[in-house]
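To the structural biology subgroup,

Please find below the input and predicted structure for Multimeric flavodoxin WrbA, which we are adding to the shared reference set this quarter. The sequence is reproduced verbatim from the submission form. If anyone notices a discrepancy with their own records, reply to this email rather than editing the shared folder directly, so we keep one authoritative version.
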Amino acid sequence: MKKKVIAIHASSRKKNTYHLLENLKEELAAYDIDVEILCLSELDIGRCVGCEACLRSGTCHLKDDVDAVMRRIPEYDGIILSSPVYMNNVSGMLKTFLDRTCRWVHRPELTGIPVLFVASTAGSGLRHTLNYLEDAALQWGAIPAGKIGRSAGSRAKRLEKKEYIRFVEYLNMDMHRYKPGMKELITFEIKKILAEKVLTRDKEYWVEKQWLNKHYYFEASIDPVKKAAASFFYRFLSGKIKSVEE
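Predicted structure (tokenized):
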């Protein structure tokens, strides 16, 4: 069955990073994966003002394209998150969009969806930018599925299968077989504690998802040692944080 992937492009130009996405689209087509490239520069995306309306009501008071995009993204089987490197990090365009996905940080909606990270630079900051993209996806509850980076010296390098094959595998994997890493498990436990004790408006969502008694968002193949370590971290941190309801 054909898989659908959305590639988020965060630059006003269609040059190095965009060309990587086009190449990826061609490569993934061989695996019966259809890639749609979404250019943020073609959308109306306002700056987050920190009013928390999205957390109270589920929608943002800004009348632009973001809510519509956020409704679309969970419908895809996978995501490619990309950016050129600006000032050793993602573009301001992408950062603005990520800020607007605040409610996904509190109430993850992309659980079980693999994300491939793509970045290009003419100078430095490639590793930091790719790591930042991964951190953003972890906050959404998504699954990190590989990193592709190009610098000035490797710009002409063709894509290799090893750079995207994990993404392909995750798109077709039974998620019960997925093995979350330590960082994913710790991120989950931190969010659980916040929902339980601090951000009580999120607790109803976590109860509805039945996550408060879980070790991860879904039944996965968790390494017993990592599970024990994450559980210890949860008990330690939970004991240090006083509930706002107390």
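Summary notes: The domain at 3-173 is CATH 3.40.50.360 (Rossmann fold). The longest helix spans residues 182-198.

Regards,
Lab coordination
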